[in-house]
């Protein structure tokens, strides 16, 4: 499945880029993420609990950030699996200065399998868009200093 | 498949049910979405509170020029209610399109609304009707519009501890016509695109137009551009076609194995025109 879209962040690309390489910021911004640990130069171990409507599932996986070209673009590879299925995706995020803020364009390919895919086919597109939207909304808040640890993902 | 074990409570009153929900229990209404997810172990609630059996939430009545519907009224009861068929036919017609007869016999209005599936049928009608949704927790009751209630895919304005208790729909004056038109996915019965139209005419012109859309994107919405394009215009097919063409503009169209984003947008235009035409023909 192709994943593509854009998102706006209210701060310049340098700041946006650094935030997206910062494990602490990522952990807060990734919906349901309860830990993100650095395991290598560009590699992180990820654990998250996805909760969406009545559906919930624990995922363990890793994130790889490569092809660094600060502040213009980088490549992200995510792999995760849990009892309810697996997710694997990779994509390029490009950052552009737009009206003093940043426009992030992302484009990539994702694979979803297991029971989550067999019953949720028709919902994968809408739910992945929702999760991406939540991620950038939260990142925008973190970058503008409007958030603290107590706040839940909205 | 068999669900994980869970605790089940069937309280006799709304008050008791709300106390359990406040403690973190998950409300169960008709179970038409929740139970399949539990059997597949995609959902694993530890405690279910059965609100589908509460007589307090099972009513359809006329009050102060509106119709009030309890959250645990089934789709079948909405589809066949003489009050709704006579005074708010859009909701009855929409209910008749949901899933199959087994689902309509068990599934409830409140359950469907609270679940907020992006392809569910009711949201289109509730947006077009500018329905009000009543949310109740152990502490308070508040009423919000359908537009405010449906936030995003599976996301509503419900707060922790709150449940949907009532839906309020208007009774339209004469010369109002409504119609729900749906392109369905035959295996699941869900809408690939569904459009609800509500129009009123005066002296051959559109004096009110409301259009609600489901299935096209991650959330239901009111197609305000279509409404504005028709407002005050001559009630004819040419104007309907021109306005319907705007139905998908500004929307992030969804794509899945049943329909690509382009095809969905195309369907939305075709079905908006159909719904408007059909509503207009019923408005005289």
Could you describe the 3D structure shown?
The complex is a heterodimer of chains A (154) and B (284). Mean pLDDT of chain A is 88; it is low at 149-154. In chain A, 28% of the residues lie in helices and 49% in strands. Chain A contains 3 helices and 7 strands. Chain A has one domain: START domain (Alpha-D-Glucose-1,6-Bisphosphate, Chain A, domain 4, 2-Layer Sandwich). With 154 residues, chain A is an alpha+beta fold. Chain A has helices at residues 13-19, 23-29, 115-143; strands spanning 2-9, 33-38, 43-52, 55-69, 73-82, 85-98, 101-113. In chain A, strand 6 (85-98) and strand 7 form a beta hairpin. Chain B has 284 residues and is an alpha+beta fold. Chain B is built from 12 helices and 14 strands. Chain B starts with 6 loop residues before the first strand and ends with a helix. The relative contact order of chain B is 0.12. The mean pLDDT of chain B is 96.
Instruction: Supply the number of helical segments of chain B.
Output: 12
Helix content of chain B: 25-40%
CATH class of chain A: Alpha Beta
Greatest interface and its participating residue counts? A-B, 23 and 32 residues
CATH topology of chain A: Alpha-D-Glucose-1,6-Bisphosphate, Chain A, domain 4
Structural class by sheet pairing and helices of chain A: alpha+beta
Describe the sheet with the most strands of chain B. Answer: 5 strands, antiparallel
**C-alpha end-to-end distance of chain B:** 52 Å
What is the CA-CA span between the terminal residues of chain A? 26 Å
């Amino acid at each position: 499945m192709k994943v593509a879209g854009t998102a706006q962040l209210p701060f310049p690309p340098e700041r946006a880029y650094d935030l997206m390489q910062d494990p602490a910021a990522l952990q807060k911004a990734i919906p349901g993420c309860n830990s993100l640990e650095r395991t290598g130069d560009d590699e992180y171990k990820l654990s998250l609990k996805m909760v969406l409507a009545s559906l919930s599932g624990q995922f363990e996986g890793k994130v790889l950030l490569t092809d660094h070209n600060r502040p213009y673009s980088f490549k992200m590879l995510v792999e995760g699996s849990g009892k309810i299925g697996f997710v694997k995706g990779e994509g390029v995020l490009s950052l552009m200065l737009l009206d003093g803020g940043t426009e992030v364009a992302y484009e990539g390919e994702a694979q979803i399998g297991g029971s989550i895919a067999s019953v949720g086919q028709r919902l994968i597109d809408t739910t992945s868009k929702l999760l991406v939207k939540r991620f950038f909304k939260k990142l925008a808040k973190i970058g503008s200093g409007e958030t603290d640890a107590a706040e839940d993902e909205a | 498949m068999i669900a994980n074990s869970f605790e089940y409570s069937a309280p006799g009153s709304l008050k008791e049910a709300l106390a359990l929900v406040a403690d973190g229990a998950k409300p169960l209404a008709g179970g038409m979405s929740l139970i399949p997810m539990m059997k597949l172990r995609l959902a694993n609630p530890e405690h279910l509170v059965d609100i589908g059996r509460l007589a307090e939430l099972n009513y359809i009545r006329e009050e102060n020029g509106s119709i009030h519907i309890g959250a645990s009224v089934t789709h079948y009861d909405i589809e066949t209610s003489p009050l709704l068929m006579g005074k708010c036919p859009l909701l009855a017609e929409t209910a008749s399109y949901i899933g199959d007869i087994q689902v309509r016999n068990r599934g409830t209005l409140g359950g469907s609304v609270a679940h907020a599936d992006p392809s569910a049928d009711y949201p289109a009608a509730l947006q077009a009707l500018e329905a009000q949704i009543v949310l109740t927790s152990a502490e308070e009751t508040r009423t919000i519009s359908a537009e405010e209630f449906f936030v995003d895919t599976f996301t509503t304005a419900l707060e922790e501890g709150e449940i949907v208790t009532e839906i309020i729909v208007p009774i339209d004056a004469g010369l109002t016509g409504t119609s729900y038109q749906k392109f369905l996915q035959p295996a699941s019965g869900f809408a690939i695109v569904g459009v609800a139209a509500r129009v009123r005419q005066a002296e051959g012109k559109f004096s009110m137009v409301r259009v609600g859309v489901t299935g096209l994107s991650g959330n239901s919405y009111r197609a305000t551009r279509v409404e504005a394009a028709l407002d005050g215009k001559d009630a004819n097919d040419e104007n309907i076609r021109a306005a319907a063409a705007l139905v998908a503009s500004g929307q992030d169209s969804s794509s899945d194995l049943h329909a690509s984003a382009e095809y969905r947008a195309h369907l939305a235009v075709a079905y908006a025109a159909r719904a408007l035409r059909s509503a207009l023909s019923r408005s005289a």
